[in-house]
Amino acid sequence: MLGSARLQHGKIALTLAAALLATACSSDGGDEQKDGTSDAAGAAVEEASASQAEPAAVAWTAKLDVIGQPVEAGPSLLVLARTRGGSVELVSLDRTTGRTNFRMPYHPGGSPTGVTMVPRATETDSGRHLAVLRRYDPQAAGPALVAVDVTTGDVVASTPFAVDDYDACSDGSDVCWSGFESRPGGLIQSPFGMMRDIIPGSAPRRWDLESGRISEKTLQEGAMRVGEPDLFVRGEGRLAQLLRLPGTRRTGWSQSVGFVVGDGVDSTYGWSFAHDDDANVYVGSMGRPLPQELVRRYKRGKRVSIDYSSRYVTSGIDGRTGERLWQREGADAWCPLTRSLSETEARTLCVVSGSRVEVKGEDPTYRDLVVELQGVAPRSGEVAWTYTLAGKEAERAYVDERAPLAPYGVVLPSEDGPVALDQRTGALQLVADDAVLLCSGGPDRVTAYGTKRRAGTLYRTCDPLGRPSKGRLSVFGVSALSGDGDLRYVSMAGRVVAFEVA
User: Fold this and answer.
1) pTM score above 0.70
2) Which residue intervals make up region (Disordered) (predicted)?
């Protein structure tokens, strides 16, 4: 699926399944500053083998002023890079050798400011792998979107109609782009005098890569995609509607956001839904906006306290009917400690409690911060395992985002030292002190066509405690990268590196 990383577990050399032993790892619950604890049934800490800290072999390195992580597309690897002039280009690399197939100017299109730029690619029904990108400025004559062969850059199809963000559809043969809302334009002369023009909204559309035909879902102006493959939100605040649009001419179902997700939820604040194919359930949440009185107090320089549990609500929504199957207060769908593990039935939630205290111009402080990572069944919401972080350890992992990647989850603190949490099962594995892992180097920003955009996350090497390291990446860290086959690909500052894991 476009823009989402999928782990292929079959060929990863390391496995955490053996970490399921008889007794549970525990810590003293009476001290909120203690390290994390796991309540997963039957989970215990197993020490990582020495081989997991061995330096990983580098298959190839491509030097690029890279932006964000690469996307695998058939025989090619697609990545965005900065040019010397400050613009952005799409670079296609051979997955086996790292040689450059082609470079092509990349226009970020209608992505809102701050939205992560990610190469778009899809595989058609005929088996072709195509990259989809905006070739011209929106005001220029000519095709707005083109689909190009990922190995040659040859244009396969094009469309002149695309004025906002675009993505690959769930069926693989189309390109979708979500609509945008009607908005005020400039002043115009009317029979009633000067009036403000209204620029009409655009409905979700599909562009077929094989035929070039464009179709449009009518009466869905303002619908914005909030979850793959076909979940949309239309409207604002309590009037917002959550819709499943499985095709261009029909609506699967439509529910009030307040009914499906929770009262007080604001669709402009943020959203994140993931679809579990086996269960046909959307698991995700929308955020609740801060009360306006709280915002006004903060702007006046007053001390304000923000309760974490009231900020988020996560639900499981039936993909066929739109029925809310379960709901959990305080569950943060944007938690930096969760990873997308598409091949597991469970979903990992961050359930946050405590508060953040803020004064304008000062660093925030935290009171009674507790973060529970919970593995839940998507249809029932039943909790299969829990891992708890509190106090300073919760701040370090959740607030400061110092949680290196592990093969099937993240590395977190515990009484026994850093442990790799397997987010499929809740199992724990002690990480060797000399293991060199991957951790976030922070979002890269690029000025593209006069606009500052968040362009994705680069990685750096770090030790099991999340501190920057200059060591070579270990096999333990390489196996945490997404990908299939015997190679793993990662963007670090100034380069894309392919590591061997077989």
Assistant:
1) yes
2) 27-48
For residue 143, give the nearest of 164, 127, 160 by alpha carbon.
160
Assess whether pLDDT exceeds 70 at residue 480.
yes
How many Cβ atoms are within 10 Å of 481's Cβ, its own excluded? 24
In the chain, % of residues over pLDDT 90:
35
Domains of the chain by residue range? 9-182+200-500
- Which range has highest mean pLDDT (11-25, 81-95, 150-164, 326-340)? 81-95
Beta carbons within 8 Å of 62's beta carbon, 6+ residues apart: 93, 98, 100, 495, 496, 497
CA distance 440 to 462: 9
User: Cα–Cα distance between 453 and 433 in angstroms, integer?
Assistant: 37
Cα-Cα end-to-end distance for the chain: 25
Compute CA distances 322 → 243, 261, 309, whole Å: 8, 11, 25
Kindly provide the residue ranges of all beta strands, DSSP E only, lying in 277-413, ordered along the sequence: 281-287, 304-307, 312-318, 324-329, 331-332, 347-358, 365-376, 383-390, 405-406, 409-412
DSSP E strand stretches across 43-96: 45-47, 58-63, 66-73, 76-82, 88-94
* Sheet of 58-63, strand order: 58-63, 495-500, 487-492, 451-462, 437-448
Q: Reduce the DSSP state of residue 260 to 3 states and report it.
A: helix
